Amino acid sequence: MPHHDLKILLAPRSVAVIGASEDQAKFGGRLYRSLLHHGFAGEVYPINPARETLFGIKTCPSISATPTPPDMVIMAIPQHKVRGEIAACAARGARLAIIITSKFSDAGPEGLALENEIVALARAAGMRLMGPNCLGLISPAHKLALCSTPALDVEKLIEAPIGMVSQSGALMGTLFDRAYGVGIGFSHCFSVGNQADLELADFVEFLIDDDKTQVICTYMEGIKSPARFVELARRARAAGKPWLMVKAGTTEDGSRAAYSHTASLAGDFAALKAVCERENVVLMDDPLAMLILASAMARYPGRKVNTVGIITPSGGGGAIGADRLAEAGIALARFSTGTAKAFEAHYPAGQAGNPVDLGARIDEGAPLIAADSAAILLADENTDLAMIVMTTAPDVPGTTRQLADGAEASGKPLFHVMMPGRVAAPARASLIERRLPYSDTMADAVSVIGAWKVWSNYEEPVAAVRPEGCVLRHFAPGELCEFESKALLRGIGIPVNRGVVVATADEALAASADVGYPQVLKVVSAQIVHKSDVGGVALNIQSAEELSERITAMQASVKKLALGAVVEGYNLQAMESGQLELIVGARRDAQFGPQVLIGAGGVMAELLKQVAVLPAPVSREDVTRALMRLAVAPLLGAFRGRAALDIAAVADAVSRLSWLAHDLREHDFEIEMNPLLVRVAGEGGRPGVVAVDARARIANIYHKEKP
Is the pTM of this model over 0.70? Predict the structure, then answer.
């Protein structure tokens, strides 16, 4: 459906309420009352055959009896009646039906079959559906409240340029209630329910094109249209509208059976997170913090935040704020010389740094010290945002007002942390009146500012260019042994150590001279995933005699620790050295397609479990950015007399693997190098990286499930 059609549908001239009632214990009664209470200007048609009027408005016995075909119909009726009413609405020429009723696809196969029936009925007549199993919509921009939540029992809707789409109706009502309590309003709020017809992406698209919306918030449980999600993220970015999102189910593993580290480390949420990072959809943990950030972004449109200046009437409050920001990686502003000099007129030497403690001022009687301090701090060229850590000072409302007055001329963001309880109630009211964002806890403040910083620091991805010689020429589907996996990698230009696979110990001894010393010996068995756990790896073999001894010991260990494993042979390899081990992998995500990951390798892969996941293909530049955000990044630089490692070689290897992943995008696959050894650039004339262990699984053509 073209987005402009939805724009028309969501601004109806007439609304019919099937199941309308005056009984506030019923869904139909509550949403009908809310529709009337909040001043919808169009025609209202209450449908109730048992009453002549409801709240003074003449009823209609059925949808077929309305004076004109209604633009929008909402129904809160028993499940078994929905099909008939949808058929009647379609016949009457209604344009959009909202189904509050549950027990459709949310209740099993029978409900799904009925849901599909009503969708087919609606589509045949050109009518669109919201829900079923949704809570409706709240649209302050249209003065349209079609929702049964008790949160709508307020005098007046607050209109603000924040749009919200939620896959949970109850959560939408809860967030509306919490937002109203702190003065946050909306342009539109949508509960999408089962998304049988219209889905979350449709409403996000509407908000992108909506003139009344500047910031988009979503609560998401699952993504119905991954490709469209990416497209809309780019459209929102192009429109200059921040998209904030809370995602449920982030701890679920992406794979039930981990073939490799790659599958377990790059689950479903990791893939979504990678896409969000690439497209600047800001993920947050807490829905209320998301709304507070949305209100701040709407209050200060386009403002970017990296550095923070703290003002507080309490040295303790300032210290706590500084600690929490530092732990979150948010830098305190370093004041310029001019700013420091300006502060010297009000504060003793050494007391005018960051944080600024109002209690340390020189002149106790200075009436406008808070206003002057805020003005000086936000005039500083190195300060992006002022965080006010308010404690129980003698005049909390007056201090709060002064700080807001002083900050106003700068146009820069002002964010209050209102730590007191009832003492700060008048101050909170003044912040709400001035549309100034605040939180009651330091944790929420840090979450908000941290997410704002993430949005501010976004860099457009660099277009991926296929490296020279990186062409997939041939592969055999199935589970590839280490030797075959390395051949696949070597074919696209990734360095691997030389080696040979033999069937017996005697063949290993015969081939050892050609491989050279020192050597690595690995058992070959389809039943053994982690060879070192069962004694299936022997390192630093220096001679044929030692090789014979190590094979004998390996046979005994594998027999004892890997019961039932069939030993197919031995992989004899040249032993390589490096200063750092990385894991580099690739897989096909069921929703977002091919992706690569990079993180600490070897045994540290399971211990740290910190990886960067990137949609494939990816440029060398973007690999480098991701690599430098990892905990292992400092080990890549010069260290205790050792030269810097070859970051460019790492970036090249990951980029090449990403193109291999791209070429395999129609297959279900996993590929892993663990470890990829990283060396000092140019050391000994050797490549900067070398894969010394690899495994791959490539299925036949990937078949998507039919919707």
Answer: yes
